[in-house]
Design goal:
The complex is a heterotrimer of chains A (about 500), B (about 100) and C (about 475). With about 500 residues, chain A is of the alpha/beta class. Chain A has 15 helices and eleven strands. The relative contact order of chain A is 0.14. Chain C is α+β, with helices and mostly antiparallel strands and about 475 residues long. The chains are: A alpha/beta (about 500), B alpha+beta (about 100), C alpha+beta (about 475).
Chain lengths: ~500, ~100, ~475
C-alpha cells in the first residue's frame, strides 16, 4: 500500500495538481488499505473497485484537459442509505437485500459533477436507527482506536473508515447526531449541515424533518471542501434551500479572534462523563486563549429534547418505512395473501430497533393519541428552537460535548433502549431546530478513546462553525493523531 | 378506530403491530411492551411544560409554494425499476391474489 | 312510516395534467404496464414528492366553478394504510386543510331545480391498478401518482335520480372547465356513495353504508336502487343495520358487506414533512379563475344574445361541451348562419350521435363539411332534400360536399330555359291532370310539380318550377 490512503483531501489535491499522483493511484491505495484493515474493522459493506477505477481514469482525463476542482479525482465512501445508480443500497437492512438503485441521490450527482468518485458502501445502524452500528444486519463495525469498542452511529462505518484511513472522506447522515457522535467516538471531523443545505433526494428517509446528509473527514478543511461540493439547491427536494453556496474554504482563516462562544451549563449536566466534560472544557478554554470570548447562556428546554425526538422521529419513520413491504423491491417472504406477505416480510427482515421505533411511531400517531404525543412534541420542539434563537442572539457558536461518553464496549448498551436514546441528548437539539453542527477531535480519555468537541451554529451559519473548528484544530492538532492499531 | 379512552401509559402492542403490518412473536410482543412502556414513562416529562399559545413546529424551516411546472420528464430506467421487484408477471409486479379492499 | 333515503357522494376525479402530481412521469394511457414510472411514483427509497402546480390550479378552478371558498392556506398530509397498489403505503392527501371548502351545484330532476351543497374538494394522488390473474394479482403503477381530486357533497341527495343528475351535472362542469378528460371507461371519474334511510320527518339520519366499486353513473343509480330497497326493508322489518362499507357487484346487481366500522382503518394522518404549505394569494386565484374556459350558462346566454338562437336551441346545444364546440365550428364554416347550423346539429347531427353513441369527434362529417353543405343550400346550389342525401353520404364516408355534388351531378338547376323544357314535356304528357287543374283542382298542381322534379332528377329549383308551371298553365 502506498501512503496516499493516509492523506486528506488537501494534501491529495496538491499531489494531483502537481502530477505527483493520479486518481487511479489513490483508488488503488485506498483499496489496498481496505483489504489490509477492513477485515478487522468491517466498515465496508461493498466495494466495487473496477467501476471506481474507470471513474478515476475519467477524472484523470478531466484533469489532463485543465479541469480543476476541490474533489476532482477524490474517492468518497458512501453511507449505505444514499442511492448511487447501479449500486446496492441496503440501509444495512435485510429488507433491502438485493435492491439495486436506479438513480443517483442529489448529493451523489453533485459529487459526480465535481469529479469525485463514490467508492464503497459503508456500514451503519439499520435505517440509521441506532448509535453504535451494532444494529446493522450485516455485522458490527469496530472502533479503529479499540476494536472492542463501537465506532458510534448510525454513520459508524463512515467514521471508522475515515479514522482507519480506509477512506479519504465519507458521506453520512445525521438525524439526531448520527454524523457528529461517531466522529467523536472515532476521532475524526463530523459536519452536520443545516436542514435544507444538502438535498435529501436519494437519502433513504428516516425522519424527513430531521434528516440531513453530512460529511466525515480527517480535517475541518476537508469537511469544508466536501460540503462546498454536495451543498446547494435541488429542485427534486422541496425542503432544499435556494441560498447560494459560499466558498467555505475562504472562511477558514485560522483565527478565533472576535468569536463569541456560548456555554450552556445544561449541556454538561445531562449525564456527561467527567472525563468528557473536562476535555471539552479544556478545549473551550484553549479557544479563549486563541482570542475567543466566552458567553454564558442558558438552554432551559434541553432536558426535553430526547422526549421530543423520540416522538417525532419514530412517527415520521413509521410512515417512511411503510414502503418496505416486499412488493416492489428487496426481500420478500411469500405468503398466500398480500397482507400476510407484508406482515411476514417486515417481521423477518426488519431488525429489533427498527421494529421498536416503527411501533412507537405508529402508536403516537394512532387514533386518540395524536394530540397527546405528536402535537405536544411539535410544540415542545418550537420551545427548543426558541432556546437556540435566544442563545444565538448572545453568541456566534455554542460549544458542548458531542456525546456524554466515549465509545462504549460492544454490547454494553444493547439491552436498554432508553439509555441508548439518552446518549443523543447533546446532538438532537440541532436537528430539531434545523441548525448546523460540527464535531472536532479535542483529546482522548485515559483509556485512549477519542473525545469530540461539538460546535453548534444557527441555520446556514456553516462558515461560522467551520471557522471556529478550523482555528481550534490548527492549534490543538488532534487531527494529526492517528490510530496506531494498524502500524506495521 | 380505537374509541376507548386513550391509555397513555401502555402501548397496545398487538393493535399497533397490526397497523404497522409486523407479525410479532410472543417473545417480541412482551419485550417491546416493556421497552416502549419505559419510553412512554420517560416521554411523559413533556406534561410538565406549559404549551399554551405555542405553535406546533412541523418543519425546521417552513417553506411555502414549492411547486414544479407541469412538464413531462423521463425518470429512471424503467427496466431497472421492474427488475428490482421480487416477482413479476407479464410486466406487472406480482403479488398473491388480493382480497377486495377498495 | 315514510322512509327517506339520504345520500352523500365522494367523487374522485383524475385531473388531465400532462405529468403526475409528484413527478414528471406522463399521465396518459400507456400501451405497456409499468412504463410511466420512476423512483418517486413507485415509492423507492429516498425518492421525494414535488407538487405539480397545474394540479393545484385545476383543483382551484374546479372549486371556483362550483362556487367554493378557496383556502388561501392549505397543506398535504400522509394517510397511512398498507395496500400493494399504493407504493409508499401511505397516500399523500389533504386531511384538515383542503384546497376548496363549501360550494354547490344546481341540478334538475323531473323538471325541479335543486341545489346540492359541496362540503370540500381536496387534492391527492391516485394509486396503481391491480389485475387479477390466475392465482395471483399483478400491479401496474402507471396510474400511481395521477393527480386526483376528491369532491365531497353534503348529504343533500334523496334519490338515485338526484345522485345521477348530480354526477351528470358535475361531469358537464368538469368537461367545460377542462380539468379532466372525464372518460368514464378510463376511470377518470369514480364515485363512492354514502346512503342511509330514516323516517322522513326525523332529524336523525339512519345507519349509513358506504358503497364502493361502481364504474358508471348508471351503476351508481342501480346500486342506490338496490341499497335503498335493502335498507328500507331492514328498517321496516326491524332488522338492525350496521355501519359498514359495502361492495357493489355490477354483474349480480347487488351490494355485499366488505368491512364493518369495527375494523375500519386508523389512518394516522400527519402533515407530510416532505411538502411545503400551499399559500395562495387572492390575485393568483383570480387569475386562475379568469383563465377558465366559458362555462355552460355563460355560453348559453351568448348563443341567445350574439347568435340570436331561440332559448330552446341554446339550452340543447350547450348541454354537451363537445356538441356545443362542434356547433360553433359549423357556424364558423357556414359563414355565420347560426340558425341553419343549429337546425342541422340539433336534428341530423344529434340523431346520428344518439344512434352511434359516439362523440362529435368520431363523426366523419367534419364541422367544416357541414358548414359548406349549409352554404350550398343557402346559395341554392342544393335544395334541402338533396342536401340531406349529401349529409347521409358524409356520415358514411366523409369527404367534401362540393365534390359530392359535382360527382353526383346534383347541382340544382335554376336556369329557366332548361326548366321550361321539363315543364313543357310534363304538361304535354299529362293533358287530363292539366285539365283538372284548370277546373280548379289545386292538388293537380302538386302532382305536376312532382313530375317535373322527377324528370329533372330532383335538381330543378322548386321555386322556379312552381313559377313556370303557374305561368304556362295560366
Amino acid at each position: 500500500m502506498s501512503e496516499l490512503a493516509l492523506k486528506g483531501i488537501q494534501e491529495l489535491r496538491g499531489l494531483l495538481e502537481s502530477g505527483a499522483c493520479s486518481s487511479r493511484e489513490i483508488i488503488e491505495s485506498v483499496y489496498a488499505r481496505i483489504q489490509e484493515v477492513d477485515p478487522k474493522i468491517n466498515a465496508y459493506l461493498k466495494v466495487d473497485v473496477e467501476s471506481a477505477l474507470l471513474e478515476a481514469d475519467a477524472a484523470d482525463s478531466r484533469r489532463s484537459v485543465g479541469e480543476k476542482g476541490p474533489l476532482l479525482g477524490i474517492p468518497v465512501a458512501i453511507k449505505d442509505l444514499l442511492n448511487v445508480k447501479g449500486q446496492s443500497c441496503s440501509c444495512a437492512s435485510k429488507i433491502l437485500e438485493g435492491y439495486i438503485s436506479p438513480y443517483d441521490a442529489g448529493c451523489v450527482a453533485k459529487l459526480r459533477e465535481a469529479g469525485a468518485i463514490p467508492f464503497g458502501r459503508v456500514n451503519m445502524d439499520e435505517f440509521a436507527m441506532g448509535a453504535s452500528t451494532e444494529r446493522s444486519a450485516y455485522g458490527i463495525t469496530r472502533n479503529p482506536w479499540n476494536l472492542d469498542h463501537v465506532p458510534g452511529g448510525s454513520s459508524g462505518g463512515s467514521a471508522a473508515a475515515v479514522a482507519a484511513d480506509e477512506a479519504i472522506v465519507s458521506l453520512g447522515s445525521d438525524t439526531g447526531g448520527s454524523v457528529r457522535q461517531p466522529a467523536s467516538f472515532c476521532g475524526c471531523v463530523g459536519l452536520k449541515p443545516s436542514y435544507g443545505r444538502v438535498s435529501r433526494f436519494g437519502l433513504t428517509a428516516f425522519a424527513s424533518s430531521l434528516d440531513q446528509v453530512g460529511v466525515l473527514s480527517k480535517s475541518v478543511a476537508d469537511a469544508a471542501d466536501t460540503l462546498g461540493v454536495v451543498a446547494g439547491h435541488d429542485s427534486r427536494d422541496t425542503t432544499s434551500d435556494r441560498a447560494a453556496v459560499p466558498d467555505y474554504g475562504k472562511s477558514l482563516d485560522g483565527s478565533m479572534k472576535g468569536t463569541k462562544i456560548g456555554i450552556a451549563e445544561e449541556f454538561f449536566g445531562v449525564g456527561v462523563n467527567p472525563e468528557v466534560a473536562e476535555r471539552v472544557r479544556d478545549a473551550i478554554d484553549f479557544c479563549v486563549s486563541l482570542g475567543a470570548e466566552l458567553v454564558s447562556v442558558s438552554f432551559p428546554h434541553l432536558k426535553y429534547a430526547v422526549s421530543v425526538y423520540y416522538i417525532l422521529a419514530p412517527a415520521e419513520a413509521s410512515a417512511n418505512l411503510s414502503r418496505f413491504d416486499g412488493i416492489r423491491y428487496g426481500n420478500r417472504v411469500e405468503a398466500e395473501d398480500p397482507v400476510t406477505l407484508m406482515c411476514k416480510t417486515r417481521e423477518a427482515h426488519f431488525g429489533d430497533e427498527v421494529k421498536r421505533r416503527i411501533l412507537l411511531g405508529t402508536y403516537v400517531l394512532s387514533s386518540g393519541y395524536y394530540d397527546a404525543y405528536y402535537v405536544k412534541a411539535l410544540k415542545a420542539r418550537a420551545l427548543i428552537k426558541q432556546d437556540f434563537d435566544k442563545v444565538f442572539e448572545k453568541c456566534d457558536v455554542l460549544m458542548s460535548p458531542v456525546a456524554p461518553t466515549t465509545a462504549y464496549r460492544i454490547g454494553a448498551e444493547l439491552d436498554d433502549p432508553l439509555a441508548l436514546y439518552l446518549g443523543d441528548i447533546c446532538t438532537i437539539p440541532s436537528n430539531l431546530a434545523g441548525g448546523c453542527g460540527l464535531s472536532v477531535p479535542c483529546g482522548f480519555s485515559d483509556a485512549g478513546l477519542p473525545i469530540g468537541l461539538q460546535i453548534l451554529g444557527p441555520a446556514f451559519a456553516e462558515e461560522r462553525i467551520l471557522r471556529a473548528g478550523f482555528a481550534y484544530e490548527q492549534s490543538a492538532g488532534f487531527q494529526s493523531q492517528r490510530t496506531s492499531l494498524f502500524n506495521v | 378506530m380505537n374509541e376507548k379512552a386513550p391509555d397513555l401509559d401502555h402501548v397496545d402492542i398487538t393493535y399497533v403491530a397490526k397497523l404497522a403490518r409486523i407479525e410479532l412473536s410472543v417473545v417480541e410482543t412482551e419485550r417491546f411492551q416493556t421497552d416502549l412502556d419505559a419510553v412512554l414513562a420517560y416521554i411523559h416529562q413533556l406534561n410538565e411544560l406549559d404549551l399554551g399559545g405555542v405553535e406546533p413546529m412541523s418543519h425546521p424551516t417552513p417553506r411555502k409554494n414549492v411547486l414544479r411546472e407541469d412538464v413531462v420528464s423521463r425518470g429512471a430506467d424503467r427496466e431497472e425499476m421492474i427488475r428490482n421487484a421480487p416477482a413479476t408477471i407479464q410486466g406487472l409486479v406480482r403479488v398473491p391474489q388480493m382480497m377486495e379492499e377498495l | 312510516m315514510t322512509l327517506l333515503p339520504t345520500i352523500g357522494l365522494e367523487t374522485h376525479v383524475q385531473l388531465n395534467t400532462r405529468s403526475k402530481i409528484w413527478c414528471g412521469c406522463a399521465v396518459e394511457t400507456a400501451a405497456n404496464p409499468n412504463t410511466h414510472v420512476c423512483p418517486v411514483c413507485m415509492g423507492y427509497p429516498g425518492a421525494l414528492p414535488v407538487l405539480n402546480k397545474e394540479a393545484v390550479k385545476k383543483t382551484v378552478q374546479t372549486g371556483l366553478m362550483l362556487g367554493c371558498t378557496i383556502a388561501l392556506k392549505s397543506k398535504h398530509d400522509r394517510k397511512s394504510y398498507f395496500y400493494p397498489d399504493m407504493p409508499k403505503n401511505y397516500q399523500i392527501t389533504q386531511y384538515d386543510q383542503p384546497l376548496c371548502l363549501g360550494g354547490s351545484l344546481e341540478i334538475e330532476v323531473s323538471g325541479r331545480q335543486k341545489t346540492v351543497h359541496i362540503n370540500r374538494i381536496h387534492l391527492e394522488e391516485d394509486v396503481g391498478k391491480s389485475t387479477h390473474l390466475r392465482g395471483a394479482s399483478g400491479i401496474d403503477y402507471n396510474r400511481a401518482g395521477t393527480p386526483l381530486m376528491e369532491i365531497v357533497t353534503e348529504p343533500d341527495l334523496h334519490s338515485e335520480e338526484e345522485a345521477f343528475a348530480y354526477l351528470t351535472a358535475l361531469k358537464r362542469i368538469l368537461e367545460y372547465g377542462n380539468v379532466s378528460h372525464c372518460n368514464l371507461e378510463e376511470g377518470n371519474i369514480r364515485c363512492d356513495v354514502n346512503v342511509s334511510v330514516a323516517e322522513a320527518d326525523s332529524h336523525m339520519l339512519g345507519v349509513k353504508a358506504e358503497i364502493k366499486n361502481m364504474n358508471t353513473f348508471r351503476g351508481v343509480h342501480r346500486a342506490l336502487v338496490y341499497e335503498i330497497k335493502r335498507q328500507t326493508r331492514a328498517v321496516e322489518t326491524g332488522i338492525p343495520l350496521v355501519q359498514e362499507t359495502r361492495r357493489w357487484d355490477d354483474d349480480q346487481g347487488m351490494t355485499s358487506s366488505m368491512r364493518t366500522k369495527e375494523d375500519a382503518h386508523d389512518y394516522r394522518y400527519f402533515p407530510d414533512p416532505d411538502l411545503a404549505e400551499i399559500a395562495l394569494s387572492a390575485e393568483q386565484v383570480e387569475v386562475w379563475g379568469a383563465e377558465l374556459p366559458e362555462l355552460p350558462e355563460r355560453r348559453r346566454q351568448r348563443f341567445i344574445r350574439d347568435l340570436e338562437l331561440p332559448d330552446y336551441d341554446a339550452a340543447v346545444l350547450v348541454a354537451d361541451l363537445h356538441v356545443a364546440n362542434y356547433f360553433e365550428q359549423v357556424v364558423a364554416a357556414a359563414a355565420g348562419s347560426a340558425k341553419a347550423s343549429s337546425n342541422w346539429v340539433m336534428t341530423e347531427v344529434m340523431r346520428e350521435l344518439s344512434e352511434s353513441g359516439g362523440s362529435p369527434a368520431d363523426l366523419k362529417v367534419t364541422p367544416k363539411a357541414l358548414g359548406t353543405l349549409i352554404l350550398l343550400v343557402e346559395k341554392k346550389v342544393l335544395n334541402h332534400a338533396k342536401a340531406k342525401e349529401v349529409f347521409s353520404l358524409l356520415v358514411k364516408s366523409g369527404g367534401d360536399p362540393e365534390q359530392i355534388v359535382k360527382n353526383e351531378g346534383w347541382a340544382q338547376v335554376s336556369d329557366s330555359s332548361a326548366i321550361e323544357g321539363f315543364v313543357k314535356s310534363v304538361i304535354d304528357e299529362n293533358p287530363s291532370v292539366v285539365e283538372d287543374y284548370r277546373n280548379g283542382k289545386h292538388a293537380a298542381l302538386q302532382f305536376l310539380m312532382g313530375q317535373v322534379m322527377r324528370v329533372s332528377k330532383g335538381k330543378a329549383n322548386p321555386k322556379i318550377v312552381l313559377e313556370l308551371l303557374k305561368e304556362m298553365l295560366a
